[in-house]
Structure formats: C-alpha cells, structure tokens
Specification:
It is built from five helices and four strands; from the N terminus they run βααβααβαβ. It is α/β, with parallel strands linked by helices. A four-stranded parallel beta sheet has the order 1-2-4-3.
Length: about 100
C-alpha cells in the first residue's frame, strides 16, 4: 500500500502513521516536499487576501522513519522514486520516501 501526500499533510496527520505501524500495515509513505502547508496558505489567501508564513524546513525524515522502526529513502528523481517503490517486494517497504520532484 502506498500513501501519498505533501510534507505538510504528513506532519498534520502523523498519528495515522502510528496506527499503520501498530497494526503492522505494510505502507510506503511518499511525501512531496515543498516546505509549506499549502492548503492552509491557499485558504487564507482566498478568504483574507493575505496569509501567515506557514513555511517550515528540515523535517528529519530519516529520524521520523526510525521512530516507526522503518527506513527512509530520499528521492531526487523519478527514477529514484520508482526504484524505491519496486525494491524487493518481499521486504517491508521504506516508511518515508521524501521527494523533491
């Protein structure tokens, strides 16, 4: 199973990843990294014409994955992402696949 979201989505819903880990779900999490909580920014701009700075940096994806006893693969290209997703199907997939595509 593959879950896909951006980094803001992941950080706002990390509790769901704990549930997946606890019940032993074989889940690969693909996080599109843009360093912002874009949906909230869009909503604030639409409603008020302005928005607070909701940018953030430096999520330690490797440490986050380690907290769930899993691994992290940083992907810089589509080929990296493809290779990480299809690597050894018999093993537990990487927990966090952060990508800057």
């Amino acid at each position: 199973m593959i879950a896909v979201g951006n980094d803001g989505d992941v950080m706002m819903n990390i509790q769901e990843m704990e549930t997946a880990h606890r019940i032993g779900l074989s889940l690969a999490l693909v996080a599109w990294v843009d360093g912002a909580i874009g949906l909230i920014e869009d909503r604030q701009e639409r409603d008020t014409g302005d928005c607070a700075d909701l940018s953030f940096n430096d999520i330690a994806w490797d440490q986050l994955a380690k907290a769930f006893c899993r691994s992290h693969v940083g992907c810089r290209t589509r080929a990296d992402l493809r290779d990480a997703l299809v690597a050894d199907a018999k093993k537990m997939p990487p927990f966090a696949l952060s990508t800057y595509l």
